[in-house]
Amino acid sequence: MLPELGHFALILALAVALVQATLPLVGAARGDIRLMALGRTAALTQAFLIVLSFAALMQAYVTSDFSVATVVANSHSAKPLLYKISGVWGNHEGSMMLWVLILALFGAAVALFGETLPDGLRARVLAFQAWIGVGFLAFILFTSNPFLRLSPAPLDGNGMNPLLQDPGLAFHPPLLYLGYVGFSVTYAFALAALLEGRVDAAWARWVRPWTLAAWCFLTLGIALGSWWSYYILGWGGFWFWDPVENASLMPWLAGTALLHSAIVVEKRDALKSWTVLLAILAFSLSLLGTFLVRSGVLTSVHAFAQDPARGMFILGFLLAVTGGALALYAWRAPSLQGGGLFQPISREGGLILNNLLLCTLCATVLLGTLYPLFLDLVSGAKVSVGPPFFNATFVPISFALFAALCVGPYLGWKRAELWPALVKLRTAFAVSVIAMILAAVLIDRRATLAAVAFGFGVWLILGSLYELADRVKLGRVSWSETKRRLRATPRASFGMTISHAALGVVVLGAVGTAAWNAELIRTFRIGDRADFAGWQVTLAKVVPVRGPNYEAERAEIVVTLDGKPYTVLTPERRLFLVQRREVAETSIHSNLLRDLYATLGEGDVQKGWTVRLYYNPLAPWIWLGAALCALGGFVSLSDRRLRVGAPKRSRVIVQAAE
Amino acid sequence: MTPKRKRLWLLVGSLCVLGAAAALVLSALSDNIVFFYSPSQLAEKHLPPDRRFRLGGLVEEGSVRKEAGEVRFRVTDLQRSLEVVYRGILPDLFREGQGVIAEGTLGPDGVFTAREVLAKHDEKYMPPEVAKALKESGRWQEGSGK
Questions:
Q1: What is the ipTM, given to two decimal places?
Q2: Is there a smaller number of Cβ atoms within 10 Å at the N or the C end of chain A?
């Protein structure tokens, strides 16, 4: 009964979304208050219906209702509760349900928190949001209905892909989707602004919190995915430049550029049409990511089984969303009044450089990701573009970005001098250069690039902290004056400092893990010893263990340091009983400065087991830094200006000719 | 500086950045793309040794031999096959009769040394290149189960 209710609620949601997508637009065009207000009611109703539908689906998973086809295909009664719940979105149908759920919740949030928006703008934003909802709801109902029944119902399900039965991956899709879908709000704001023909400081202030929230969640989602692949795939790496990973990085880069260009719109009333374009691109890239993952057109280590028909639907939808928006942009953007010209050396000049570099990075990733598709279409040759390409392009361009990043915040708006900013940063610069030289000499003389990157990491952290110290005049005025200044500093500035410094932390972690790691693969019989990165490792024993839905063999690898016991690593090889699939479970000993990492391969008592060991210096900093980066975003989000700003249109702007 | 001049400089600056990036990208692309071949396609090409490429096909039934720290198996497109040697831990979903992609170089002895064997997350998944190569060899149909 409940699955039918869920299905019915979903159909109703589609009907409501259709109403929400059309009538408020008519209302906004005619100035009809009642039709415009309908958007708010419809958004809340739609969200309620989709929550209901999602809850019905979740109920089917939690109670293991095997009369529902997707539950049979993806769940099993012996699975732990967490994975029964995460199983809801661990498959195609369910992940699309999660997508529309988050979309509807964002729509409801705009309806609830958008009290200060002018009626027309709010109605239009909600209508464009609803159009995206209509597309995805139709997609679910016509091609991937999760509520289909099976008769007769089997006694038990097929279980879930064992690689996905992991706490990290349980929360990775929701966070990533909060990011992807969050950009739909920005997209809707951009379209509404194009239709209204005005983009001003107030618009930028309304858009900023949504962009910031989406960006924070996307940052966390990417970090969680990277962490998951680090410890579950057993390769000791954190980023493989795989198409699926790149698909999530591209909207992040575009979103980061958008965050920065929106500041220029807010403060200087310039860069308007560029910002609108970025808002359209950020969401289009999110959809492109979904298409790449769901269609399977590219070979990826993270690929799942796909259905080409579904891929075609998403591609069509992507073309409609992007093409439609760009057409509207081409038609309306000329009516957006541009701001004045800039001095190249100024805060806004710095932000333009930031945008230029971030977009170049994004274009590089896009090119590297889609080039195999392009070449296949043109010449039929099958190629892949791997890490060497991205290392040769992405890294140097990001160095340029890092170099400029600490200087930008020192430049004033409108007109600034470069030299005084550089003088203020001289200590940070000197320390970074020393760190770079020390890294080159002490750690690894051959890894020059790594040493340079290490220097940039230190530069990012110090440069960002220096800016904050300078702002509060630390050490130059009395402590109480510094404290007063600290209190007067807007949260958005703190957020900036935290996120910028956190980027440095990520860079340091990436350098340590990618360049200064050590790796050992060899066959161990019980009692075999080996020296590894200063430790002595011994395979003490391999014992059988039993989990809720798997059997495993667990190795005990004793690590000693100068004869004294240091730690015991216990990697496992799990055999999942339902699928008869083996999955390696890594064991990681971390002390926040480095990871000691072991995976267990196949083997037996006679031949011994293949064991892979990694020593990854600074590896935890990658995810720590990413979390800090998102934290900076959240701190910025809590800024008064965004929270209670109740931003009114600051001045009357001559409306563009309709 | 006049506004026109300024705009010119901004444009020149942007073009410099983009030009440098494009140069980087093009040189990286020509050096770093990795071609994909099936064993049959490989037999027609004469690749210089030490050229890195991807080899794809099915793991031949009964060909997997595990020796100390080393795995040997044959990759087949059901017409021709090629011996592959790999040191390291195979991905969890590596099985005989299933699709596989290995990246590495072909030695003078005709044995392919894999540096990387691609893992998959899902056993129903067949890499698109492998599916296409197998279709071209005419021995495999979509949905035949493998």
A1: 0.73
A2: N
